Structures are given as C-alpha cells and as structure tokens.
Amino acid sequence: ITTKLRTSIVAVLGLVLVLGISTTIITRKLSGQLDRATSDIARVQMLAGLISTASSDLVAVDRGLAFATVLQKTNKVSEFKQTFDATDGELERSIAEFAQLSSSEDEKAEIARLQTQHQEAKRLHSQMINMLSAMQMDQALSLLDSSLLPKLQDMSNSAKKLVERQRTELDQVKADAATVTSVSIWLTTGLT
C-alpha cells in the first residue's frame, strides 16, 4: 500500500508541477501579448491618428491662410502661418516616430509614401505662400485647389489606412490572446 500511495503522491506532485509550469508559461505569453498590444500597437495607432488629424488640420489652415491673404487680414495670415508651422512640425515628428516603430514592410512602404507626400505638400505650400506674397491670388488659389489640398487629402487618407491597419493588428493580438487563454483553460482542466 505504501508504494501505491507514494506513486500516487509522486504522480499528483508531477501533475501539479506540470500544471504550475504550463500556467506560468501561458501567463508570461499572455502578459507579453498584452504588453505589446497596450504599448507598441496602441502607440502606433495613436501616431497614425495624429498623422491623419494633422493632415486634415493642414487643409483647414491652408484654406484659412489663403482667404486671410485675399481679405488682407495680416494678423490672421501671421496666425495661420504659425499654426501651419506648429501643425506641420507635429506631423513630421509623428511620421518620424511611426517610421521607427513600424515593423512590417507594408507599413514601411506606406510611411515612405506618406513622407514623400508630406515633402511634396510642403513644397506646394511654400509655392503658394510665395504666390500669395507676390499678390498672385488667382494662381495661388488655383494651386491650392488643384494641387495642395488634394495632396493633403491623400496624406490624410493614407494615414487613415494606417489607423485601420493598426486596428486590424490590435484585433489579431486580441484573438491570439483569447486562443492562448482557451488553451490555458483546457490544459488546466485536463490536468486536474
């Protein structure tokens, strides 16, 4: 009887050890997935949202700048220029940080495209400012409507795609965590 009892005790202790180790491993895996989801993916998603918002804000600022110039509201023109510079700086920082955090080749390609669009938009903005300063209102407004605003809208749309891609990635991490949780429950139930 003592041999059977010892064997049973050893078997139970072995199962408890296996259960403890497997639970620890699964918990660490879940913790890693949640850390990644809450820090990396959430940060990248926030940056994509900032890029989209800043791009849309630049559309409004450029419109306001053009109309303030046409109406010869010098205080407003100065205000819009400062707002443009601040928003553009925020956009550049967000794009740069997003580029550092992006992991997939698709994201890197999209960021490169966004950076190119941004440089082109800055060039068009400078060109429009020069035209407005030279009182070439018709050409400046034409450039604004035909080139600059569509470029800024393209940037905003590209950023919205990045937001959607990050949302999809976050959903995938959530699904992976649910799968690991399910496996953990079945493993724990099966061993007990």
Summary keywords:
rod-shaped, 0% strand, 192 residues
Topology record:
Elements: H1 2-70, H2 74-101, H3 105-133, H4 137-191
Helix pairs in contact: 1-2, 1-3, 1-4, 2-3, 3-4
What does this structure look like?
The radius of gyration is 28 Å and the shape is rod-shaped. The longest helix has about 70 residues, at about 1-70. The protein is built from four helices and no strands. It has helices at about 1-70, 75-100, 105-135, 135-190. It starts with a helix and ends with a helix. The mean pLDDT is about 85. With about 190 residues, it is mainly alpha-helical.
Average per-residue pLDDT, rounded, comes to 84
Q: Helical proportion?
A: over 70%
Main sheet overview: none
How many beta-strand segments?
Answer: 0
Q: Element order, helices and strands?
A: HHHH
Q: What class, by secondary structure content?
A: mainly alpha
Q: Assign an overall shape.
A: rod-shaped
Oligomeric description of these chains: single chain
**Radius of gyration over C-alpha positions, nearest whole angstrom:** 28 Å
Counting DSSP H or I runs of 4 or more residues, the number of helices is 4
Which residues sit in consecutive blocks of at least 5 with pLDDT less than 50?
Answer: none
The end-to-end distance, rounded to whole angstroms, is: 24 Å
The fraction of residues in strands falls at under 5%
